[in-house]
Hints:
alpha+beta; Deoxyribonuclease I, Chain A; 3 domains; 9-stranded mixed sheet; 5-stranded mixed sheet; disordered C terminus
Amino acid sequence: MGLRESPYASRFLGGLDAVVSSFLFPSYWLVSQLLALQQTTAEKQRQPCPLHALWVLLAGPLLLLPLLLLAPCSLLAFLVWLPLQAARRPFAYQHTPSPCPPQPCLLPGQGKAFAFVSANVCLLPDGLAKFSNLAQTQQRAQHIAQRLARAAQRPAPLQEPHARGAPSKQKYGATDSSPLGACRSPPPGDHRHVAVQMALDGGGEITAVFPPHADFLCLQEVFDSQASARLRRLLSPHYAHILYDVGLTGLLGCSALKLLNSGLFLASRYPLLAVHYHCYPNGSGEDAFCAKGLLCVQVQLGASQGQRIVGYLNCTHLHAPEADAQIRSDQLTLGLHWAQLFQDANQQPGDIVAFDVYCGDLNFDTCSPDDAMEQNHEIFTLYTDPCRLGPRKDKPWAIGTLMNYLEIYSEAVSTPEKMKRALEQAEGRRKYLAGPILANGAPDLSGPRGEGRRIDYILYREHPGPAELTTTVEKVSFITQLATCSDHLPMGLRLLVTSVAKPEEIDFVTIIQTRPALQAPKGPTMALHPAGTPAVPLAAVQELCCASRSAKASAFQQPFRRGVQNKGLPLGTILLSQPQRALVGESRACYKPCR
């Protein structure tokens, strides 16, 4: 049975909620506009302080008076709204039938790549967004939705083998596009995308555009309902399944009154099989008024011999105040427990798990000394962070994802391309990314600033199961396309999931013909897989290695895989790795499979 779209089980309750919300909205908007009278740094540059003070004196009373007049009506609507939340499911679902559904994952096969984007987009009510030095929430929501929709329209990149030569001299890859104004659209049809050379173990790039054709979007801080509606309207043609308005509000389910939802927003190209949300019970301070929690989703990716191929997404936003490390650590522990309970409850016998991703704004970094508790949490033993080498140590190409909010509107980072160029330089990262901080929130000046505070994560793990799968990180992206529109850099992760053929399932080939220099002697043969690749006599390959003076011969020094006697092959039969097959192929021998 599919998911119900409305968070209410009856139309009456849904209609009542809409009516009550319409009575609450004027007061909500007036409070937001009162708070929005404070200025961002960009507004301070455009409007001198005396003029702004005069505007506050005029606008303040004009906003405050209707707020007071509406107070009795708003209070009555609020008293109706509170108990109504007890009947509400903690998420809403939007399904838009897609004319072009995604290609299903098939096993066994050549592998399937899945692309994920996680971003804190800071779409709060205007008044609250000002505390992050951001304004114009509705315009920013429109811009963000357009950029994500534009990226979704671009075709997915073709699968390319990883480079095996010397690494590139560039520390970061580059993605190019035409110059953009802040929060302005590029010329139609301008989708140039320059590929980057990746390291063998997965590398990183700074890119000025969102990765093309992402399969899953996991957004945080989509608190404003109008902003959420803009996102849904522009993303629904590309993402058939959207979860929004996630979280418990009111007095139920969590430890305190929740006035805002969790801010989580998830869009998927693939069908959703199961969804569950948990609210963290230990929020404090200003974070206690929003329903931060963990959103767990099971998606249907395909089928293999009657078995479901599924994936798991866990999206979250942890407690923010820097001094509350214990709260964040407890939330991580709860999140791991809830994710495992969700998977145990929704897993069916024989399920093949293609991926298990845990992502979001975790609000701790890898460079601040007072984040040691979170940096050493067990989540990093269960999940893999593709950017991390160990506690307080990232891979050389990883950079911070939190901007220095006072520098958001600086000319050097005012467009995606300018920000990309600035962050490719060490000096730019030191100036425009937030540096390490202490528990009290003050800058940590005792050590090096490093590459900035990376507080946004996309983690993954592999699952044992009936099919042996391997996960390879193809690309990690630090995205600058939301320049001036968010105080975070979105992150992208592209995973390649491939099936590993078991020895008893390999189609072996035998020699039919070789050139004279490689006539088959008596003795064990070397078998290559899969079917259609050549099989070469072991002695002939050894002879070829001895004759070779190139470095390629070292490929044969790797340990060989042995032991397939159950297929009736001679003792000593060997399976070659990819570099070994490439070397044998240079013998120009003529082979064809045995039928």
